[in-house]
Specification:
Helix content is 18%, strand content 34%. The chain has 159 residues and is α+β, with helices and mostly antiparallel strands. The chain is elongated.
């Protein structure tokens, strides 16, 4: 899981000495070639990092990264994003064929996108590509899958 508490701040485009030189001299200043080159390199580096999605504020979890853990027998979870200490999560759920669990209410709104397999929420049948939304406090019926399923969810882990 990506650790959002240790996000570093992007390096400034202008180094301290260049910024100081420019702020102390309100007139046009000719930068030394090495200062000009350093400023240009910083700007190009920031642009490249932004294009690559690696500046602070971006999180990428590759398919082979992160940890799966068993939330309950037959259900593995991989947390992709945690919103502070609120309990609100973005995660993947991998359910084994034959998995079942009782219906439950939701402490947050919950969103579900089926990626693989089939899943039943009571009488509601979801297949790969389907989207399901459950409002905070709503109780849905028994959850089960005969085929197994992989789902992308945003909400809280069931209690």
């Amino acid at each position: 899981m990506a650790n959002h508490e240790n996000i570093s701040v992007a390096p400034p485009v202008l180094d301290e000495d260049i910024l100081l030189l420019l702020t102390e001299n309100q007139e046009e200043v000719e930068l030394l070639p090495e200062l000009n080159a350093r400023m240009r390199n910083n700007i190009l580096s920031n642009i490249a990092q932004e294009e690559a999605g690696i500046l602070p504020g971006f999180t990428t979890v590759r398919a082979n990264e992160g940890e799966w853990f068993e939330a309950m027998p037959g259900a593995q979870i991989k947390i992709l994003h945690r919103e502070g200490d609120s309990g609100l999560l973005t995660y993947l759920a991998k359910l084994s064929p034959g998995f079942e669990m009782p219906g439950h209410p939701h402490p947050f709104d919950e969103e579900c996108i089926m990626l693989e397999g089939e899943l039943w929420f009571g009488d509601l049948h979801l297949k790969a590509g389907d989207y399901h939304f459950a409002s905070k406090g709503v109780h849905h019926g028994r959850l089960k899958t005969e085929t197994g399923a992989l789902a992308f969810l945003k909400g809280a882990l069931p209690a």
